[in-house]
Amino acid sequence: MKLLIDARMYGLEHSGIGRYIINLIEGLKKLGNKEQFVVLLRKKYFDQLNLPSNWKKVLANFRHYTFEEQFKIPGIIKKERPDLVHFPHINFPILYRGMHVITVHDLTMQRQGISATTLPLPVYYLKRLPFLLASRIGIKSAVAIITPSDTVKNDVSEYYNIDKNNIFVTYEGVDFGKFENHLRGDPEGLLGRWNLQTAKYFLYVGNAYPHKNLGIVVKAIKKLNAEKDLNIKLAIAGSKDVFKERLQNLVRQENAEKYVKTLGYASDEELSVLYKSSIAFVYPSLSEGFGLQGLEAIASGSLVIASDIPVFKEIYEENVLYFNPNDVNSLVEAMKKVMKISGEEKTQMISRAKDFIKKYSWQEMAKETLEIYKQILEKK
C-alpha cells in the first residue's frame, strides 16, 4: 500500500491545519511500518524533517491557492503512482483524477462574506470563485471525507449533499507533555517579557479573522473594567494576519488601549505559562471545526469561557463556561462568574476537565486515519 500525503501546510505557522498535519505524520510514523508513505513538502520542512526508511519526501515548493499548484501537483502525484492520496486541506488540484481522501476542518471559508477580506472586491471574487470550485470538486469526488467533529460532518453533509456514510470523524488531540511541563509558576520570567507578571488578565490565543469574533472580547473587557473599576487586562497571543490592523483599530475606537495587550507569536511552552497564569482563556468564535486552544488551555490548568456554538458543546461538553457570542453582557457576566470562583472550586473544575479531555488523542486520530486508508483500499 502506497500512500501520498500533501503535507505542504506542515508547520505551526499554518495554525490548526499545520498542527494537524504534524501530528498525523508523527502518529503514522509510529503505526505504518508495512506501508509506503510519500509526503509533499515545502522547502523549509523538506530540509528539516527526518523520516523512516519507508517514507519518501518529495519537494513541492508551491504556495497554496495558486495556479502553479493546480498545474504542477497532479504531475508530481502521477509520477509517484500512489494507491491513495490524502489532501489534509480543501485546496484541491482539480486536474487530479485519482482516488483521494480529503480532510475538511470546517466550512468557514465557504460561508464567509466580504467582511472576511482586505482585498478589493474584484480581486476577492477572482480568488474566491476558483477556491470554491476547487474545494467543491475535491470534496464531491473524494472516496472518503474526514472531519474533526460531528458538527462539521453534519455541515459538510448538508452543504454538499453528501451521504454521511462517506464522512468519517477523527477527533483531534492535545499534547499534554507540552502543556503540563510548565505548571509551576513562571521560572523563566516569561510573563515579565509582556509586563504581565503582576497583572490579572483574560487570554485569547489565535488569529484575528472575523469569525474569531474578537471584537466582543475587546468590548467586554472595557465594560467589565468600567463596571467594577478594575484593571483587568485582555492579553492576545497569536501569529500575525491581515486582520490584525482591524483589531487594533477596534481597540482604539473602543478606547480600550489600556486594557488590551497584543503579545504576538508565542511558542507552546510560552503559551502553557500564559494559559496557567490567566484568569481564564476566552474562546469567542462564531464558527470552528474543533477547538484545539480550549484543550490546550485546560491541559495547562486554565478555566475556559467559550461561545455556546454547537461544536464547542460537542467537544467540551460541561467542562467550560458558555456565553452567547452575540451578546457582550453575556460575556461580561461569564467573566464576573469566573472571577468569583474560589481557588478550591477552580482546582476541582480544572481536574475534572483534564480527566475529560484525555479522550482526545493525536495518536488515536492517526490510528483511525490509517484504518480509513486501509478500509478504502480493501474495498478497491
Automatic annotation (TrEMBL):
Keywords per UniProt: Transferase
Organism: Candidatus Woesebacteria bacterium GW2011_GWA1_39_12
Gene3D superfamilies named in the record: Glycogen Phosphorylase B
Ranges for domain Glycosyltransferase subfamily 4-like N-terminal: 15-175
The organism's place on the tree of life at top rank: Bacteria
Record-level GO BP terms: lipopolysaccharide biosynthetic process
InterPro entries with a match to the protein in the record: Glyco_trans_1, Glyco_trans_4-like_N
Pfam families in the cross-refs: Glyco_transf_4 (PF13439), Glycos_transf_1 (PF00534)
Residue intervals of the Glycosyl transferase family domain: 198-354
Entry annotated with the keyword Iron: no
Official protein name in the record: Glycosyl transferase, group 1
